[in-house]
Amino acid sequence: MTLDGAVTGTMPGLEGLERLLDGYRGASAYLIPMTAADGRTMLGNNGDRIMHAVFHRILERLDIRAVAAPAAADVVIVPPNGALLEVYGFPELLAERLRGAEGVPLVIFPSSTLFPTRDPAFMFRGRSAETLWITREKYSFDHLDEQWGLSLADVGVTLALDHDVVASGHEFVPELLGGAGSGGGLLVAGRRDKEAADLRSAGSGSTHGARASGQASARLLARLKKAVPYGPWYTAAVRRARRAQLAAAADRLLGRLPAETRAELEHAGRRRDVDLSAVQYATYDEYRRVLRNADAVVTDRLHVGLPAAILGKRVVLVEAGYHKLQGVYERSLAELPNVELVGAR
Question: What residue ranges define each of the domains in the chain, with the CATH number in brackets?
Fold first, then answer.
């Protein structure tokens, strides 16, 4: 079965998501922990934090209250996340964390997904209650429906299509970021993490040099952690130590832009090269401050570009290697005159 929570307008609102979740208004919910097997958080970047801040505002709007155990819940909720990909370990963890809650309805909040070779139905086998799996863009929806729809239906999964929660809950974003400013120039935020490596560079040839560079960077980061407590001094030290790598990542992004877009952005002011979503380069307060003051943004980070777009910044999204950015742009942002997509697949 499939559902569609689409709404029309310049930007989506919460009407579609509220319609999909109307039966759970006033419910008690067990929120699946977004932690790895060793207890480390899987909400590992600043973009995740803004997404989850919006998510909790949406739960408040629906009067859904969190409880400590599935046995006390009317519904189990998987928060919005970027981890429902075959290359990550979270699908296995989710299957484990659903054990014991087989009779409680399940809702997966809007996320992107990619399971090219493994049937994701394994996560839901043995469940007797309904599952509502909401995607935030059509590529993920079509991928699940066309490739795995029959097996998902066999385990009681209904697929739905809505929007990224930061897009549909955009009314909350200005307050969460502290409003919109200016004078910060051009922010170029190119990701340098596992998702970029696994989904953009796979099959591109030998990775020996990349591994060696990554190991050296990890050693440097470990030394800094011992020498400087985490905070603005720490992130400033890491940005300075990795200035060349950040500039190279920014140059790669800018090199993918059409000539006329690059020429336009030359007038945006001083250029700042930083993967703003990564916590080693920016605290959450720095993320908020730099984002709200930027005059223009070029990024392959969804939750750098999306909040910036909501604040009215000039935003150029650069597709990062699978359908996430393109899908969210086409689904939720294409009508915004201040946003452009480059590198569509």
Answer: 2-170 (3.40.50), 178-342 (no CATH)
